[in-house]
Amino acid sequence: MSRTIIQHGTVVSLDPEIGQLEDADILIEDGEIVEIGAGLSAENAEVIDASDHIVVPGFVDSHIHLAQTQVRGIAGDWSLMGDYFDDMLGNITGLYQPEDMYLGGLFGALEKLYTGTTTVLDWSYPNTPEHAERAVDALQDTGVRAVYTYGPPGDDAATWWFESDVGLPEQQIREFDAEKIRDDDRLSLALGLRGPDFCTDETARGDLELARELDALATLHMGAACWPSSVYGDDYQGFGCLEDMLGPDVNVAHGNHFAQEDIDHAVEQGVSFSSTPEVEMQMGHGIPVTEKVIEAGGRPAWGVDVCSDISGDMTSQMRIGLQVQRMFENQAVLEGDEEVTELQTTARDTLEMATIEGARALNLEDEIGTLTPGKRADIVMIRTDDFMTAPSHNPIQTVVFQSDTSHIDTVLVDGEPVKQDGELRNPLVEEEFDRFVASGERLIDEAGIDLE
């Protein structure tokens, strides 16, 4: 049995029964949190000193396309409908070879671990089964916990999008699940559904039925930009043909233009929403869905979305998403001719959206999301002895507002340190770096993307 003790940390468990503890220890055995308290000890345990550190659950990115990592820096001035659909989904994605999927996923996942994200939902467009296999190889080679989302191939938009009547490749997905996913405790399967925004009703329902047969999460891009209304006009009804099939195994990315009554119904049925505030505000998706989900009695999970555009750092999404929500809440008070005397959405709320709600969205809340005995030891340690984070009077506010990636000192997944003393421990960072850069250069060159 392997044992590790994290000692003398400020533990922000996010578990209401455990709370926040000063000078506390966490005992880990075989990747599981066994005990949290003071003065813990265990024979032959590896000791990690957490003095001058805040210890929090690993962040969860509930929606990202990791394969775009090697084309970073091309989409910072792109809109969704004017550029991204044409240049990324209609061009670059079709040029990916299996090794491009591997290299993008590898360095995307390494970035996530470096910045404190221990679990990701990787929404993938595998052009062939080999593309999907290499994408999963990348996740396994980094040690990240992941929900691999098998979406439609990315090399034939006419077949797979725009009122498509072609269902997801069932036999390929079944074989892939059996060979690559089921026996790996850190991996689970999701299906990337197009939903009624992008395929026929019969196809949308069939894809969701397949996800349920496989006991896989169903995740959909829905309600972003003006795309739904441009197709359906006044007949667009939110979930449409899927309205009677909703449940906790359905996750919606974006959802900006859903009516409040659609959100109310979805939250009541247990549907989760993944908001990617930075990308949505830039690319023209619309106002983030956060306020509508909160109004319905739920909370969204945060995600990065497209790393061809922005950093994979989840603390940025925590801050941006929180402050945008506060802006709308405060403006509503001001428009009522009152002064803002109390903030409604808190720093703790946004941290929980990056941990607890992310875990719930991925159906992993029994395994991760809080520091709780019995859960897996996915843990992040954040320095408080730096001139930018000290003194830490309120640990949660330090994490949300003062810390950045330079303060994320140690990261554990399943109790294994993947980053320690500020450095990733994976030798692939250096071994595959040149191939990673060359992959991005080739894709951009072949796609003819204008970088000026």
UniProtKB/TrEMBL annotation:
SUPFAM superfamilies in the cross-refs: Composite domain of metallo-dependent hydrolases (SSF51338), Metallo-dependent hydrolases (SSF51556)
Residues of the Amidohydrolase-related domain: 54-418
Gene Ontology molecular function: any one: hydrolase activity, acting on carbon-nitrogen (but not peptide) bonds
Pfam families according to UniProt: Amidohydro_1
Protein name: Cytosine/adenosine deaminase
